[in-house]
Amino acid sequence: MSDNGENKYAVDARGLSFRYQEGTLALNDVTFKARRGEFVALLASNGSGKTTLLKALSGIIKPQHGKIMIDGEDINSMSSKELYSKAGIVIQNPDDQLFGATVREDVAFGPRNMDLSEEEVETRVKEALEGVGAGRLGKRAIQHLSFGEKKKVAVAGVLAMRPNILILDEPTAGLDPAGEASMMRLLSKLNRECRVTVILATHSVDMLPLFADRIFVLSEGRVLKSGPAADIFTDHEMIEQAKLRLPYISSLLHEMKRLDGVPINGLPLTIGEARKRMLELIPEDILIKQLDEKNHE
To answer: Which stretches make up the ABC transporter domain (predicted)?
Structure first.
């Protein structure tokens, strides 16, 4: 597929503005783009407009101003069935999305409404559940699932529609650290191996440097900045304006550099980067001595 011109964008939204009936201006001239196969994060504190933007991108609400293109086609010219086959949304609380009696029935709902054969529906249900690591849950009643399992089943229900674009609102909210890591690895796998364009909204910053190709920072309905993690988290003034924070490892090394004068090169965003930067501070002869001692153990 050509990567030239407009066709390279899975989502191309320009000049979006949306005001709720009670008067809240949730989106104010927002432009957002995601290339095909890209992993894009919307980073914002609560009440900044990120959920409203996701609802607009998935066709749940219609902005008063602006234009949204999905795979090069105006969202307003697409039927609901066409739109949902291209872009699927997973909302924050899975209890608001899951309504089938069993996991299998819930995941089958979307494909059945696409007028597919029952054989194709079953194929998609099996594929989607296995894809999120929930293949064994097919016969389980929804109310008997853990919160983390519900999150995975909600993702499976969207994947069964086989969209090119997966839109998620706070997919790790309410999960323990292991569940958060598991969900992010799942989304990364779908993105890297299946080439699904992933767009997720979050206010959790620690894992984004590991997974996101680009980050959009929203505040009070506007985009403050967009770019790779390294560009975003080195803009301390902007991070403060958006009422966000640095990843914990970055905060620690930033304070060591600022308060203790530790000559750290750059601002590491992950533990791996931090280890590399710290090793650079250790004299080479000490490192060689430690390596020799380890080899003789």
So the answer is: 11-245
Look up residue 259 and give its amino acid. Answer: L
Domains of the chain (ranges; CATH) run 5-242 (3.40.50.300), 246-297 (no CATH)
Mean pLDDT of the chain: 86
Report d(CA 161, CA 242) in Å as an integer. 35
Q: Contact, 205 vs 47, CB < 8 A? A: no
The position carrying tokens 């979307």 is 110
Residues 45-96: pLDDT tens digits? 888 999 999 999 999 999 999 999 999 999 999 988 889 889 999 999 999 9
Place of tokens 């900044």: 48
Buried b / exposed e across 221-243, counting CB within 10 Å, b at 16+? bebbbbeebeebbbeeebbeebe
